[in-house]
Give the backbone structure.
Amino acid sequence: MTRLRALPRAHLIAGICLLALVLYPVINPWNPYPQGVLLLGFLLAIQASSWNIISGYGGYTSLGHSMFLGLGSYTAGILALRWGVNPLWVAPLGGVTALVIAVVIGSVVLRTRGHAFVIITIAMLLAAQILAANFKSLTQGSDGITLQLPFWGRDFQNIPFYYAFLGLLVLTVLFSAWLRRTKFGAGLVAIREDEGKAASIGVNTTRFKIVAYAASAFMIGTAGGVYAYYLTFINPVGSFAILGSVTIVLATLTGGRGTLYGPVIGAFIVNLVSEESTVYGGGSQSRVLIFGVALMLVVLFLPRGILPTAEAWWRKHHPVEVEYTDQAGALSGGPLTTYERTREPAAEDRPLLEVRGVSKRFGGLTAVDNADLVVQPGTITALIGPNGSGKTTLFNLITGGMTADSGEIWFDGKRIDGMRPWNRGHLGLGRTYQVTRLFKDMTVQQNVVAPLPDSRWRTMFAGAVHGHEAARARDLLDIVGLGRMADQPAGALSYGQQKLVELAQVLMLQPRLILLDEPAGGVNPSLLGRLTEVIRELNRSGVTFLIVEHNIPLVLELCDPVVVFSRGAAIAEGPPERIQQDPIVLDAYLGDDWRPAESATPASGKVVQ
Amino acid sequence: MTQFLQAVVLGLLIGGVYALMASGLTLIFGVMRIINIAQGAFLILVAMITWWLWHETGIDPILASVITAPLMFGFGWVVHRLLISRVSGESSSMSILLTFGFAMVIEGVLDITAGNRFRSATPSYFDESFRIGSVSLPKAQVFGFLAAVLVLAALYYVLTRTWTGRAIRAATQNPSGAALVGVGAAGTAALAFALGSATTGVGGSILSVLYPFFPASHYDWISRLLGIVVLGGMGSLPGALIGAGILGLAETLTATYGSLSWSTLVFYVVIMVVLLIRPQGLFGARLREDAA
């Protein structure tokens, strides 16, 4: 609840600050120095807020973001010279250049995960510097480009620039706030927290990251055009300064990465420190040292930034009462409401899922070995077998977390083994994980509404939680008995509760086939009863299940057919009664305890698995 | 033809030096999954120390690495204990930012103490060359190459033939497994970081003779090293050697047939192309963690 009340208050404070900043040049027009300091603060805040979109929300750190400022400056500068227009009018084209370059770089490097991005951002910034110095015909090389002086009279000083940058800053913050509230923003946070999981619930991670990078470039590029006019001079070293990038990073980290106002607050702090160090710290020479030390100190001692740290402190001193699983509520749960299904039902005559001769090797280990598996529509199929027999790997191959070395996977008449995970999700394939993978910093409700049903741009920029969806999320949470936990951070829940939230999350996708990886692990017996009831109910309404589970009584009770995996391939398949008595299965997995009494062999020296 | 041969020979000589410099970066990444952005600053720091030793005492700059290498080993150990170990458990971006900050601190300190101007150690053989047929081999390049190969061989010996080295390699491949058989992750990481820093103790000394440098040169150097390890595959030592050879050749060939100012761009182009075609590099295996 404190969150809810804190939110409008933050906006209120921001509004008051904005009003003060708008009025300041009117009240104190004849003092250019503070105006100049504030103006540079706005510029840094624009950059920090933009950086925050890819690196704060999305979690992909860019160390070369000042490149976009330089690109914007050069675009506006060159066009102003060639076309003979005022740089201000072509400043948005600087934003377009920045956006295009970001899309190009992003398309190359953001297809993969990991370290490549941060390396490329540094490399591109330095490469841009070299290019600007060498393309003399376009950029006039190291001599730089000199622009005309502002067209307004000297009496106005830099006040027009002051308002231009302030206006851009307001736009940037509004843009960032809007993005964060859309499915796109929620998807970025999901990517930051667990990219593989995000892909499995239908988030097109590649597209999201590229769009975020482009979105983080546009405003900076536009500001760069204005900045070029403000400086009236641009050169390669000044425009593509690595120190500028560090300042952006430092500002956002200081204020609070991933928050809305943190980057702005951080920008003003860093800008002030920068000014003071220039004035008192022995000129710009010591700035490198001071920023280096500041960056290290922030990383070591204030890694989350001022705003989140303050918020955590506030929460600690104003604790919210923790609620427990509404067990009674869950158990007494009324009839399960099923939802409108937009997709046409699967053709009954062909298998819903078919795995043909699929193999996956990890070095010398063959985890899945030429495996075949068929799941008929409308069944609850069990996949059992000893640990290490390749069940979870097969799940990963089916949902696209890993790619198979050979073989084919077909889902509802479509070959899916070459598809990206989110496309498989959009077809109606959902899964849960053996060890739950919720987005721990999001609330339970945000987790449940995180899945994306399709890859349309409209879906992407719809509100993250709109009414009809919120209602459905609440229904689903009620079904698993966690309705009252909706606003808790998912990380605060117990393991068993997280399993249930993950089930609710996957149901949000309205999947046709749900792969459950050990759904019963860590769930208490009475809730387990409810869980099986939910599975049965969903099954009756047309959802097919493929379940990996070690709880054999549950499997025998719930599933038909049962497929037994051993050494990476199916060794038996059939109804539970038959599997229970199959000598091969007893040897490979179940062991003698499951041998029917009349046929039980006398205890021997043989080691039973 | 002579021009081509000359470029190839020079490229391979430079490639050897690059290989040594990149080996430290890839070793540290292999064990800790940390990209030490400060590796370039370490090189410049050592180059500055070497220059100063040479200037004050007249000691041969490349031989000065018998002083700077142990010095950097100790320096690396301390840096790991005081700084790197504090963030090693957290997200990779934090460790990158930390080492980036550290690189700036080194740059700033050098800037203030030694001043912002180009330096270069010029021992007596500085502008002399060996000649084989029509190809001339600058002595400084040859000595630098030999020193680099010697140190790389020693590094190879340490990593494959000693317990310490095997521990480091074990921790590279499987940290938790290594911990189970008694290889402490923290100690191994500190050792790897110290070893990786020690390679800059030699690389920086060679640099001081072969290239003019100033405090902010470290950005240029870290970009080259990143280009090499991205090409070879992050964390792969053989990859770093091959990548260094290829980029050394590419650089000298561009400088010979194109222009000197474009040759530095080769590294950035290579980074882009590799990430486009084969993101894991030449020798980098796709890891299980990438997929899961």
Summary: Residues 32-273 of chain A form one domain. The CA atoms of residues 255 and 265 of chain A lie 5 Å apart.
